[in-house]
Amino acid sequence: MALQKSSNTFSIQEMIREKKNKKAKKLQIEKIVPFLLLLTAIVSVLTTIGIVFTLIAETFTFFTKVSITEFLTAQKWYPFSETNGAFGILPLISGTLKVSIIAAIVAIPIGLASAIFLSEYATDRTRRTIKPILEVLAGIPTIVYGFFALTFVTPILREVIPSLEIFNALSPGIVIGIMITPMIASLSEDAMSSVPNSMREGALALGATKFEVAIKVVLPAAISGIIASIVLAISRAIGETMIVAVAGGSTPNLNWDVTGSIQTMTAYIVQVSQGDAGYGTTIYYSIYAVGFTLFLFTLIMNLLAQFISRRFREEY
Amino acid sequence: MNATIVKPTIEAVMNHNNSKQSAKAIVYKTSGLNLWYGENHALKEINLDIHENEVTAIIGPSGCGKSTYIKTLNRMIELVPSVKTSGTIEYRGRNIFNKSYSVEELRTRVGMVFQKPNPFPKSIYENVTYGPKIHGIKDKRILDQIVEESLKGAAIWDEVKDRLNENAFGLSGGQQQRLCIARCLAVEPDVILMDEPTSALDPISTLKVEELVQELKKDFSIIIVTHNMQQAARISDKTAFFLNGEVIEFTNTDKIFSTPLDKRTEDYITGRFG
Amino acid sequence: MKLIDHAKVLKQMKSRKASNIFFKLLFMAATTFGLLVLGILLYRVITQGIGYLDFQFLQNLPSRKPEQAGVKTALIGTIWLMGVVAPVTLLLGVGTAIYLEEYARKNRFTRFIQVNISNLAGVPSIVFGLLGLTVFVRALALGTSILAAGFTMSLLVLPIIIVASQEAIKAVPKELREASFGMGATKWQTILNVVLPAAIPGILTGGILALSRAIGETAPLVVLGLPLFLAFLPKSVFDMFTVLPMQIYNWTGRPQEEFQGVAAAGIIVLLTMLIIMNSIAVYIRNKFQKRY
């Protein structure tokens, strides 16, 4: 066939058939490619395995030097003392929690209010302008926020609270709150925007105000997405490093004072990494034990967020 | 290209002679074809013979399996997960479900035009050369000629010859569909499958595609699925009426539209349902 | 019988409407707060740093004297880091995305990979530092080289580019794939010639976002043990180096007031790079939006 079909002086099908001697090569490519792609996909799995394995192995070594009971229950963290060193993680956890709670207190109301404004009140144009700006806010490197906390927020706070130390929990807490606000705002706005308009219209037609619709209809309908966004944001706050390393100080304390110098789990790892704790020392292994604790905290929060958004997903 | 004289091959002469005879060669022979989407029995015991250089129309209400059937002919249906088939479809005497039959080879011989025009987001030129290129034809001179011949064959050459390097998305819907036909012609297929090719087009573009089908029929065997009975009546030689996954009637087009044998066919073509 | 006292409803209406307006303003104020903070932050950094920012600042090596300090080593180090992270993440990220979207069967293993990726995205960056310290710096003996830092950062930002590429690949219409298969193209030919070209804008946007995350991160690099102060330039990927955020961190921690200005100048350089990269991403997104 083929020749009578056009004025072509050649048959394309015939040429294709000739090229088919490359077919074996083509078939090989078709078989090799998925395998290579699978290998790249496995890298992400290996990363997780690597993280978990590294943390567990080095933490295990740490526990041959320091008992688990001491780690979990001792009230003091004095790793650098030669004579009466103590490795109780509680002071570091307390530092982390102080900062995270302050961050949550700042971020939840502001983030939710922004989400409601963007989803329920703002015009399309406003939303399209503001959302990217919030994303920019989320994309600023944390070291910049750290600089901001130390050189701007702390001095202002010290005007108001004279007893505030230069390094404290309040200032980094507030700045981390500012940092995670866009995350809550953006993710909650997504959850609220996906509530179907018919539900809003039903309430509006009964004479409800926009505020009542937002609080009594949209918020309950989107609650799982909103809670998930808050949990994720707090998880970010727990793992945040540079802001607390710059503005939080390096004094592990087990108390609820927010005006004094603190140390979070992340800041401790930074402190040790910058110092000259030699490979193989107890201090060297302690950063893995602290890192593992931090990892567990954030992992549980992330799984919780996933569970909430899956378990309570509304079917509209 | 040199202006050379066309030298018909033996195969071409035979085909040519064949097409003159009343009994044309069978391109597709479907025997006892069943198809399931999971539990859903979508095609039931289909037996159909499709002949060379004819236009075979497949009509029927939506959901009757006509699209499924045409997509089975080039095994595109396998892109849907959980599809199972039984029975055979022989293309030029070889069962296409045979393990040794490569789908790529089948689809190189059997072109397809889809419901919605689906040009690639590339230039008009690249759209037409896509097929030849993936099959290893790289000679620029040959590709240039393929582009011209294919676009002429799809009756769109005059409209686009001055802007071959522009993006195909700049064309109108009707032009896009003819470009898709040209893209299909570029590998010189044996059969062209058309799955409701005009359903997304305006009446004038539809008319152009219909005229084109009449023209292409001389060189290709065409199977066309349509929901438009007038279209089937206008352009096809034979018509198959599908209902609930079964072939109710399959015969010459003028016959099916004038004296349908089955009551259900009559109901459908007179617009009582569907 | 009258169940509803319309007079009372009307009376309440006023206060309900008032509270609606009150809360609207409150919500608006909260949203403005975010913008305000961004404004103050930029204003502060620029006014503090602009005095130290000149051509000399970009060319000078770090110094003990604030007026002579410069970002040359850090800036060049950041560019080196990008040179490692960009190809590695692009290769691994796009490869993973293609595998998951085009080849993987919808089974438990695939779901596991997917869940794993979203969990990785939530792991604190400092933990990646611990991974890098153990695996790249020590086990593979790469030391605090560009390669060790580049690999660590690549793993950190991998989820960003995977998810972005998956979205981009998913958005390629099914019809285009069908057209290609219908021509007798193989799966890989279809992916290479049709799917990837159509998905490239989304992939690039995600890639740039991932890269900007990588050049802004500090914590993992501190853990790897990157020097805070380095007075020579790296010559190959096996050399020691430092990056802008590390340099800024170093200056921020100095007690002298002047170094805060120098740190601010460093931040301006870093933010300028990020703004340029993000503008490119936005440009790509807008230019190629809604092509099909």
Automatic annotation (TrEMBL), chain A:
Superkingdom of source: Bacteria
Residue intervals of the ABC transmembrane type-1 domain: 93-305
Keywords (A to Z) from UniProt: Cell membrane, Membrane, Phosphate transport, Transmembrane, Transmembrane helix, Transport
PROSITE patterns tied to this protein: ABC_TM1
Protein location: Cell membrane; Membrane
Listed transmembrane segments: 32-57, 99-121, 133-157, 169-192, 213-234, 283-305
Recorded coiled-coil stretches: none
InterPro entries according to UniProt: MetI-like (IPR000515), MetI-like_sf (IPR035906), Phosphate_PstC (IPR011864)
Bilayer topology annotation: Multi-pass membrane protein
Protein family membership: Belongs to the binding-protein-dependent transport system permease family. CysTW subfamily.
Function: Part of the binding-protein-dependent transport system for phosphate; probably responsible for the translocation of the substrate across the membrane.
Protein name per Swiss-Prot or TrEMBL: Phosphate transport system permease protein
UniProtKB/TrEMBL annotation, chain B:
Start and end residues of each ABC transporter domain: 28-269
InterPro entries attached to this UniProt entry: AAA+_ATPase (IPR003593), ABC_transporter-like_ATP-bd (IPR003439), ABC_transporter-like_CS (IPR017871), P-loop_NTPase (IPR027417), PstB-like (IPR005670)
Keyword line: ATP-binding, Nucleotide-binding, Transport
Keyword match Membrane: no
Record-level Gene Ontology MF annotations: ATP binding
Classification via NCBIfam families: 3a0107s01c2 (TIGR00972)
PANTHER family, per the entry: ABC TRANSPORTER I FAMILY MEMBER 17
The name this protein goes by in its record: Phosphate transport system ATP-binding protein
Source organism (scientific name): Cytobacillus eiseniae
UniProtKB/TrEMBL annotation, chain C:
Annotated SUPFAM superfamilies: MetI-like (SSF161098)
Keyword field contains Hydrolase: no
Residue ranges crossing the lipid bilayer per the database entry: 21-46, 74-100, 120-140, 190-212, 218-238, 259-284
Subcellular location per the Swiss-Prot or TrEMBL entry: Cell membrane
InterPro entries given in the database record: MetI-like (IPR000515), MetI-like_sf (IPR035906), Phosphate_PstA (IPR005672)
Keywords: Cell membrane, Membrane, Transmembrane, Transmembrane helix, Transport
NCBIfam families, alphabetized: 3a0107s02c
Family to which the UniProt record says this protein belongs: Belongs to the binding-protein-dependent transport system permease family. CysTW subfamily.
Protein name, per record: Phosphate transport system permease protein PstA
